[in-house]
Amino acid sequence: MSEIDGFLHVTGQVVPDMGPGVAYFGTVMRGPATDASARAHVVEQILDRVLPGWKVDRPAKDKDFRWLRDQASRAKAELQRSEELAERLGDNAPDMDAGDLHPWAWENGRSFWNTGHFHQAVMQAAMRINAETQSKLGRMDVSETALFNEAFSLSDPKLGSPRLRLAENDGSKTYESLHRGARAFAEGLYAAIRNPGMHVPTDGGEEQLALEQLAAFSLIARWVDQAEVVEG
Questions:
Q1: What is the pLDDT of residues 141-163, one digit of tens each?
Q2: What residue ranges do the domains of the chain occupy?
Protein backbone atom coordinates (compact mmCIF):
# COMPACT_ATOMS: atom_id res chain seq x y z
CA MET A 1 0.00 0.00 0.00
CA SER A 2 2.85 2.41 0.81
CA GLU A 3 4.27 2.01 -2.71
CA ILE A 4 0.94 3.04 -4.21
CA ASP A 5 0.62 5.98 -1.81
CA GLY A 6 4.13 7.11 -2.69
CA PHE A 7 3.39 6.97 -6.41
CA LEU A 8 0.13 8.89 -6.00
CA HIS A 9 1.90 11.54 -3.93
CA VAL A 10 4.78 12.07 -6.34
CA THR A 11 2.53 12.19 -9.41
CA GLY A 12 -0.10 14.44 -7.85
CA GLN A 13 -0.82 17.74 -9.59
CA VAL A 14 0.03 20.92 -7.64
CA VAL A 15 0.28 24.65 -8.32
CA PRO A 16 3.96 25.57 -8.06
CA ASP A 17 5.09 28.33 -5.75
CA MET A 18 6.62 30.92 -8.07
CA GLY A 19 7.38 33.42 -5.35
CA PRO A 20 5.84 36.76 -4.38
CA GLY A 21 3.91 38.56 -7.10
CA VAL A 22 4.21 35.74 -9.66
CA ALA A 23 1.14 33.80 -10.75
CA TYR A 24 1.24 30.41 -12.44
CA PHE A 25 -1.78 29.26 -14.37
CA GLY A 26 -2.14 25.50 -14.35
CA THR A 27 -0.54 22.68 -12.41
CA VAL A 28 2.59 20.56 -12.51
CA MET A 29 3.48 17.14 -11.19
CA ARG A 30 4.63 17.31 -7.57
CA GLY A 31 7.75 15.17 -7.91
CA PRO A 32 10.50 14.78 -10.53
CA ALA A 33 9.76 12.66 -13.59
CA THR A 34 12.61 10.25 -12.78
CA ASP A 35 11.14 9.49 -9.36
CA ALA A 36 7.67 9.09 -10.85
CA SER A 37 8.94 6.66 -13.50
CA ALA A 38 10.74 4.52 -10.93
CA ARG A 39 7.67 4.36 -8.72
CA ALA A 40 5.44 3.64 -11.72
CA HIS A 41 7.47 0.51 -12.49
CA VAL A 42 6.82 -0.85 -9.00
CA VAL A 43 3.14 0.08 -9.12
CA GLU A 44 2.72 -1.75 -12.44
CA GLN A 45 3.97 -4.95 -10.81
CA ILE A 46 1.47 -4.48 -7.99
CA LEU A 47 -1.32 -3.95 -10.52
CA ASP A 48 -0.39 -7.23 -12.22
CA ARG A 49 -1.18 -8.99 -8.95
CA VAL A 50 -4.18 -6.97 -7.76
CA LEU A 51 -5.97 -6.12 -11.02
CA PRO A 52 -5.21 -8.72 -13.71
CA GLY A 53 -6.22 -7.32 -17.07
CA TRP A 54 -5.54 -3.70 -16.09
CA LYS A 55 -3.44 -3.15 -19.22
CA VAL A 56 -6.26 -3.91 -21.66
CA ASP A 57 -7.33 -0.28 -22.23
CA ARG A 58 -3.97 1.34 -21.57
CA PRO A 59 -3.50 4.43 -23.78
CA ALA A 60 -0.46 4.79 -26.01
CA LYS A 61 0.47 7.98 -24.17
CA ASP A 62 -0.23 8.66 -20.51
CA LYS A 63 0.49 12.32 -19.79
CA ASP A 64 1.76 12.84 -16.25
CA PHE A 65 0.75 9.23 -15.42
CA ARG A 66 -2.89 10.27 -15.16
CA TRP A 67 -4.29 6.97 -16.47
CA LEU A 68 -1.89 4.93 -14.33
CA ARG A 69 -2.91 7.01 -11.31
CA ASP A 70 -6.53 5.95 -11.85
CA GLN A 71 -5.48 2.28 -11.98
CA ALA A 72 -3.33 2.71 -8.87
CA SER A 73 -6.27 4.24 -7.01
CA ARG A 74 -8.45 1.29 -8.06
CA ALA A 75 -5.82 -1.15 -6.81
CA LYS A 76 -5.55 0.72 -3.51
CA ALA A 77 -9.32 0.54 -3.03
CA GLU A 78 -9.30 -3.17 -3.87
CA LEU A 79 -6.55 -3.85 -1.34
CA GLN A 80 -8.38 -1.87 1.33
CA ARG A 81 -11.62 -3.76 0.67
CA SER A 82 -9.83 -7.09 0.81
CA GLU A 83 -8.24 -6.22 4.14
CA GLU A 84 -11.55 -5.00 5.54
CA LEU A 85 -13.41 -8.13 4.44
CA ALA A 86 -10.74 -10.39 5.89
CA GLU A 87 -10.89 -8.48 9.17
CA ARG A 88 -14.68 -8.49 9.43
CA LEU A 89 -15.30 -12.02 8.22
CA GLY A 90 -12.27 -13.56 9.87
CA ASP A 91 -11.34 -15.22 6.60
CA ASN A 92 -7.90 -16.69 7.11
CA ALA A 93 -8.05 -18.89 4.03
CA PRO A 94 -4.74 -19.13 2.14
CA ASP A 95 -4.27 -16.95 -0.93
CA MET A 96 -3.08 -18.35 -4.23
CA ASP A 97 -0.54 -16.38 -6.25
CA ALA A 98 -0.15 -17.37 -9.90
CA GLY A 99 3.47 -16.23 -9.77
CA ASP A 100 4.23 -19.03 -7.30
CA LEU A 101 3.05 -21.77 -9.66
CA HIS A 102 5.54 -24.03 -11.40
CA PRO A 103 7.29 -22.09 -14.20
CA TRP A 104 5.97 -24.47 -16.85
CA ALA A 105 2.43 -23.59 -15.81
CA TRP A 106 2.96 -19.84 -15.60
CA GLU A 107 5.76 -18.41 -17.74
CA ASN A 108 4.24 -18.92 -21.20
CA GLY A 109 0.81 -17.67 -20.18
CA ARG A 110 1.88 -14.72 -18.04
CA SER A 111 1.33 -12.11 -20.76
CA PHE A 112 -2.11 -13.54 -21.57
CA TRP A 113 -3.08 -13.50 -17.90
CA ASN A 114 -1.95 -9.93 -17.39
CA THR A 115 -4.16 -8.77 -20.26
CA GLY A 116 -7.22 -10.59 -18.98
CA HIS A 117 -7.05 -13.60 -21.33
CA PHE A 118 -7.25 -16.17 -18.57
CA HIS A 119 -8.37 -19.14 -20.65
CA GLN A 120 -5.54 -18.65 -23.13
CA ALA A 121 -3.09 -18.62 -20.22
CA VAL A 122 -4.33 -22.07 -19.19
CA MET A 123 -3.97 -23.38 -22.74
CA GLN A 124 -0.40 -22.09 -22.85
CA ALA A 125 0.34 -23.98 -19.64
CA ALA A 126 -1.06 -27.19 -21.09
CA MET A 127 1.05 -26.86 -24.24
CA ARG A 128 4.23 -25.97 -22.34
CA ILE A 129 3.91 -28.93 -19.95
CA ASN A 130 3.27 -31.28 -22.86
CA ALA A 131 6.36 -29.97 -24.66
CA GLU A 132 8.56 -30.23 -21.56
CA THR A 133 7.41 -33.80 -20.95
CA GLN A 134 8.12 -34.75 -24.56
CA SER A 135 11.58 -33.23 -24.25
CA LYS A 136 12.35 -34.98 -20.96
CA LEU A 137 11.35 -38.37 -22.37
CA GLY A 138 12.61 -37.79 -25.91
CA ARG A 139 9.14 -38.66 -27.18
CA MET A 140 8.00 -36.44 -30.04
CA ASP A 141 5.87 -39.22 -31.51
CA VAL A 142 3.11 -38.99 -28.87
CA SER A 143 1.53 -36.10 -27.02
CA GLU A 144 -0.85 -35.10 -24.26
CA THR A 145 -3.08 -37.98 -23.03
CA ALA A 146 -1.17 -40.70 -24.87
CA LEU A 147 2.14 -39.24 -23.73
CA PHE A 148 1.24 -39.23 -20.04
CA ASN A 149 -0.42 -42.63 -20.20
CA GLU A 150 2.85 -44.09 -21.41
CA ALA A 151 5.03 -41.94 -19.16
CA PHE A 152 3.37 -43.09 -15.94
CA SER A 153 2.55 -46.61 -17.10
CA LEU A 154 3.35 -49.30 -14.53
CA SER A 155 4.71 -51.59 -17.21
CA ASP A 156 8.46 -51.81 -17.68
CA PRO A 157 10.08 -49.24 -19.96
CA LYS A 158 10.91 -50.29 -23.49
CA LEU A 159 13.40 -49.12 -26.07
CA GLY A 160 12.15 -45.73 -27.23
CA SER A 161 9.46 -45.71 -24.54
CA PRO A 162 10.95 -44.62 -21.21
CA ARG A 163 8.90 -44.10 -18.05
CA LEU A 164 8.64 -41.39 -15.44
CA ARG A 165 9.04 -42.64 -11.89
CA LEU A 166 7.95 -40.58 -8.89
CA ALA A 167 9.34 -43.06 -6.37
CA GLU A 168 11.45 -46.19 -6.25
CA ASN A 169 9.59 -49.38 -7.06
CA ASP A 170 9.42 -51.20 -3.75
CA GLY A 171 6.61 -53.46 -4.88
CA SER A 172 4.10 -51.73 -2.62
CA LYS A 173 0.53 -50.70 -3.33
CA THR A 174 1.57 -47.12 -2.58
CA TYR A 175 4.00 -47.14 -5.50
CA GLU A 176 1.31 -48.45 -7.83
CA SER A 177 -1.31 -46.01 -6.56
CA LEU A 178 1.05 -43.05 -6.95
CA HIS A 179 1.71 -43.72 -10.62
CA ARG A 180 -1.86 -44.73 -11.44
CA GLY A 181 -3.01 -41.50 -9.83
CA ALA A 182 -0.53 -39.34 -11.73
CA ARG A 183 -1.51 -41.04 -14.97
CA ALA A 184 -5.23 -40.55 -14.36
CA PHE A 185 -4.72 -36.96 -13.19
CA ALA A 186 -2.81 -35.99 -16.32
CA GLU A 187 -5.36 -37.73 -18.53
CA GLY A 188 -8.14 -35.81 -16.79
CA LEU A 189 -6.42 -32.47 -17.30
CA TYR A 190 -5.90 -32.95 -21.00
CA ALA A 191 -9.23 -34.64 -21.66
CA ALA A 192 -11.41 -32.30 -19.60
CA ILE A 193 -9.57 -28.97 -19.87
CA ARG A 194 -7.09 -28.87 -22.73
CA ASN A 195 -9.08 -30.60 -25.49
CA PRO A 196 -12.48 -28.94 -24.89
CA GLY A 197 -10.68 -25.64 -24.48
CA MET A 198 -9.25 -25.83 -27.98
CA HIS A 199 -12.67 -26.12 -29.61
CA VAL A 200 -14.83 -23.73 -27.59
CA PRO A 201 -14.65 -19.99 -28.40
CA THR A 202 -13.77 -17.99 -25.31
CA ASP A 203 -14.00 -14.36 -24.22
CA GLY A 204 -11.15 -14.45 -21.74
CA GLY A 205 -12.61 -16.97 -19.31
CA GLU A 206 -13.39 -16.65 -15.65
CA GLU A 207 -10.40 -15.69 -13.57
CA GLN A 208 -11.06 -17.90 -10.55
CA LEU A 209 -11.75 -21.00 -12.65
CA ALA A 210 -8.65 -20.37 -14.74
CA LEU A 211 -6.52 -19.96 -11.61
CA GLU A 212 -7.75 -23.30 -10.27
CA GLN A 213 -6.99 -24.94 -13.62
CA LEU A 214 -3.50 -23.43 -13.65
CA ALA A 215 -2.91 -24.81 -10.16
CA ALA A 216 -3.89 -28.27 -11.36
CA PHE A 217 -1.51 -28.06 -14.32
CA SER A 218 1.19 -26.76 -11.98
CA LEU A 219 0.93 -29.93 -9.91
CA ILE A 220 1.41 -32.26 -12.87
CA ALA A 221 4.30 -30.04 -14.00
CA ARG A 222 6.03 -30.50 -10.63
CA TRP A 223 5.55 -34.25 -10.78
CA VAL A 224 7.05 -34.46 -14.26
CA ASP A 225 9.89 -32.10 -13.37
CA GLN A 226 10.81 -34.08 -10.24
CA ALA A 227 10.32 -37.53 -11.73
CA GLU A 228 13.21 -39.79 -12.68
CA VAL A 229 13.42 -41.03 -16.26
CA VAL A 230 13.82 -44.81 -16.48
CA GLU A 231 15.05 -46.06 -19.85
CA GLY A 232 14.26 -49.42 -21.41
A1: 999 999 999 999 999 999 999 99
A2: 2-89, 98-230
